[in-house]
Amino acid sequence: MDKKIVLKNVFFDGAKRDILIVGNLFEKVTRPLELADYEGAEIVDCSHFAIMPAFYNGHTHAAMSLLRGFADDMELGKWLNEYIWPTEAKLTPDDIAVGSHLAVLEMIKSGTVFFTDMYWHREQTMRVVEEMGIRAAIGVTFAEPLMSPEAWAANVDFLKNHTGESERVQLVVMPHAIYTVGEEKTAELIELAHAENYKIHTHLSETMTEIKNCMEQFGCTPVEFWKRLGGLNSNFSAAHCTHFTASDRKIFAESGATAILNPCSNMKLNSGIPQVAEMLKDGMKLGLGTDGDSSNNNLDMQEEMKTIALLAKYLGTAETLPAEEALKMATCNVAQFFGINAGRIAEGCLADCLLIDLNNERMVPCYNIYSNWVYSANSSAIDSVMCNGKFVMRGRHVDGEEEILRDARECAARLVAK
Amino acid sequence: MDKKIVLKNVFFDGAKRDILIVGNLFEKVTRPLELADYEGAEIVDCSHFAIMPAFYNGHTHAAMSLLRGFADDMELGKWLNEYIWPTEAKLTPDDIAVGSHLAVLEMIKSGTVFFTDMYWHREQTMRVVEEMGIRAAIGVTFAEPLMSPEAWAANVDFLKNHTGESERVQLVVMPHAIYTVGEEKTAELIELAHAENYKIHTHLSETMTEIKNCMEQFGCTPVEFWKRLGGLNSNFSAAHCTHFTASDRKIFAESGATAILNPCSNMKLNSGIPQVAEMLKDGMKLGLGTDGDSSNNNLDMQEEMKTIALLAKYLGTAETLPAEEALKMATCNVAQFFGINAGRIAEGCLADCLLIDLNNERMVPCYNIYSNWVYSANSSAIDSVMCNGKFVMRGRHVDGEEEILRDARECAARLVAK
């Protein structure tokens, strides 16, 4: 029989409620519980907690956690070519496992239970995700300058065999970017994704250099490039989207594709800022991501959510992107793209949620809990994190965290000594 | 005899050290300790901690903590006139004490030991600051539309009598803004500040509406207005400075005045963003503030520091405002303006500091501790806070926090019921 959990006296939608979780789903949220619902259930005292949807991180490179703070305060080209790529070339599969552990720990601690990962040695990351109890859309990543033809073919085989997919892990076709995967290869990957029923995720319109080179090489913007190849539809999501033209926004909105904005990374690397107010006006589907730990330098979706809400108001009006809408960009909008019925506290949805400590000083007073959560709090207000009906953090403790930090420190020391 | 504290094995400047505090000062930081230094000292095991300067918040309205989340997602004029000012008019001195307690608790929890406060019922706030062990520059605030002539005269008397100044509290002359204090009254306050040796602090060039009205009324920018009245010098600091012209920046830099930037509030209220990259280039003295809890919506200087660092890179280049310089804007730059020898971990400086938990997942790995502290961490990495040689938070606990939160909740409930 499915495990039952009752979140007792939890604050949701303006009132204290008892919420029933059966197995991995919210069974009763606003409907009153009956006596039978409590029978055999684990009762969790939530009288000091509010419930919030857990975060869905739409774009990251998890194992880059090992390179947090390794190179800062420089522009994207120099940062990638002189620091990140040469160091990444030294990463072994074991290192990737260590880095993924650190990243997933950091994500759980800041309330994230799902991430879209574009990186290498995906099997290690998939194993860590399974082990630590969260979800991921794991990229099978393609980049011509960084891969042998054999490695490319192996990736294609991997996708054709649907290797390693599970209840909590899905695979995604990920051409790295227009400047690393050419027209012909991009077309092949679009066909593959379509035939095998995969989503596509890529870096898009991140810097002005990318736009300029794309215009020179293909005579169109990156968005037009993808449209021309037939890749722009509701199965397509792109990270960054920092330099969309008005026409790009219109094309993108009409296609039903999802843009994953990463404002902290974009500002830190001087790439620009996404025109979020215009994007909202044009009806684009928008989600949020943190990008990797070496360009942000954290995986904190609460911080990203506040940042995009502030930028939206700066670029639009003070009324643009109210707190509750910013929260959706960090939760259900990302889940929805990946076909996951989650990111909301609602009956029938997957039981992914956070218990927020109402005794945290930044949640007091509480005129509007969404305002407090988006604008005032930070991740330290998260007491517990649930994914798929199971607690992955309780009382701010995650199993195995000491070992994960020890391994990460040792690995980083080896990496710089190499 | 002065109390001695040894911070044992604390990480500072690339190495583990023993740091000696005698009374309220750092006595030995990089010099090796001798046996006699440990005698009679409280030894604090810091083997998992790094030391960082505590934050100095250059601009806030502490007791507005009671209005956190009370009104969001609207522009400054509507927000002030329809929501904030009518509600503030109901605040009693007792309410101000409750709100100041909540604000100081929030500040300590996020590593701040000093704040510049512009508000009403200053005696209550001064008492709370004394009681909770931190520092403040407390405004004697002037705003013609909100004050009777008697209240104005009482403020002037208060300043002439230097009432309530102490080791940790100084008074500051605070005309609210150009649009609330006219030319004649501003000139009088400049003279008073000069005669009685006070600093001046005001809101300046916050919105385009302010600039436009100032141009119409006085035929000059707000910066030129202050220059014309002779108020612009090293004893002058201004909050916001969102809409400085190139000429304003030059005038301001030459005057030796300090600009206190509040980027989160400016974005949230759609006021604009301070041109921090140009300001740095023009050699302006820059500090940071959070503004009040109802326009930010928190008092977290770590968050403000990351935000200004990101904006600086967005507006300048990826090299603009490296982590260590951003930290200075949130610490010693503010202290320096107020003539306080603090905001740095250095011999002879006031012992105001933070112990940062190196086992916090966002401090791992640690290639560059300033990068981790500015870009990756959040306030949850602060284990302990010291002000003036005394711990005001240890192991994340602040004395009396439960009562402060209870009182704040009750007060907020009364406020909305009025």
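The mean pLDDT of chain A is 96.
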